[in-house]
Design goal:
Blueprint lengths: L1 E3 L5 H13 L8 E6 L2 E6 L1 H9 L1 H7 L6 E10 L2 E11 L4 H9 L2 H6 L5 E11 L8 H10 L15 E5 L4 E2 L3 E6 L6 E9 L23 E11 L7 E10 L4 E8 L1
Parallel strand pairs: 11-13
Antiparallel strand pairs: 1-6, 2-3, 2-4, 4-5, 5-6, 7-12, 8-12, 9-10, 10-11, 12-13
């Protein structure tokens, strides 16, 4: 099911993210990526995405060859399935009057000026659910609050929803670990890994049979750890077990699962 979203500014996008949470359509660990040219920023958590949107001007300023827009991909689980949110985010072009004022203003004033607002286009939610929910109240409220004016429909899927590609279980050395604090035990647990992509030979084929084309030449892999462990008790080795891939109308959603 696809819902085109009426979002035109970053504020509209923030209201949508908060609305998904209010309607019970958000988990504690959504994942997202912002892509600009050949650079991508990855994150976990809705709050972290909101902060990243606030930092858009700084992110573009730090890029050697900034593009005028970024692509947002946001993925979360709900109603026993998953959904993706996609959008194009761009800085608004300053008006001629503002451009002239900036050129005449001293450099200190330019540094303190209000950044141009962020504009949003091509915003869409796409759901992949295990079936048609008997209670679709949350989805109806979502459409009424944020959706486009035309109707949306559930479409039957004629293929297997999730494809699993089993890997060779070769050991991997993590470049970084993803850590989550457990408020119950007070401990920090490793819940994910960042590893080099050793499986893509080039953009046309992979070293391993069954390696998803969507992951070709990604450079790095952000992996979910199937069994979490305390930060203070690292295992002897990690290895990659499988890639789970599902599709929404817009995207392929792949989870690389690691074990120890």
């Amino acid at each position: 099911m696809d819902i085109p979203i009426q979002a035109h500014t970053a504020d509209d996008l923030l209201r949508l993210i908060h609305g998904l949470d209010e309607l019970g359509l958000a988990s504690a660990r959504p994942t997202w990526a912002l892509q600009q040219n050949d650079i991508s920023w990855f994150g976990i958590g809705a709050g972290e995405l909101i902060q990243a949107l606030d930092d858009a001007q700084q992110r573009m300023a730090e890029s050697a060859a900034p593009h005028h827009s970024e692509q947002l991909v946001y993925c979360d689980t709900a109603l026993g399935g998953l959904y993706t949110l996609t959008a194009i985010i761009a800085a608004a072009e300053p008006s001629p009057a503002r451009q002239q004022a900036d050129e005449c203003a001293p450099s200190s004033s330019q540094r303190n000026r209000t950044p141009a607002p962020l504009l949003v286009s091509q915003c869409q939610l796409s759901f992949q659910l295990p079936g048609t929910p008997l209670d679709a109240t949350a989805l109806r409220h979502l459409h009424d609050r944020f959706g486009a004016t035309h109707n949306v429909y559930f479409r039957h899927l004629d293929i297997t929803a999730i494809k699993i590609s089993w890997l060779d279980q070769q050991p991997v050395d993590p470049l970084a670990t993803i850590v989550e604090h457990d408020s119950v035990t007070g401990q920090d647990f490793v819940v994910g890994l960042v590893v080099h992509d050793h499986y893509s030979a080039n953009g046309k084929h992979a070293v391993l049979e069954g390696w998803p084309l969507e992951l070709q030449d990604s450079g790095f892999l952000v992996c979910a750890l199937a069994d979490h462990h305390p930060v203070t008790r690292p295992p002897e080795r990690y290895w990659l077990e499988a890639v789970h891939t599902a599709h929404t109308s817009d995207l392929a959603v792949a989870t690389v699962r690691a074990r120890w």
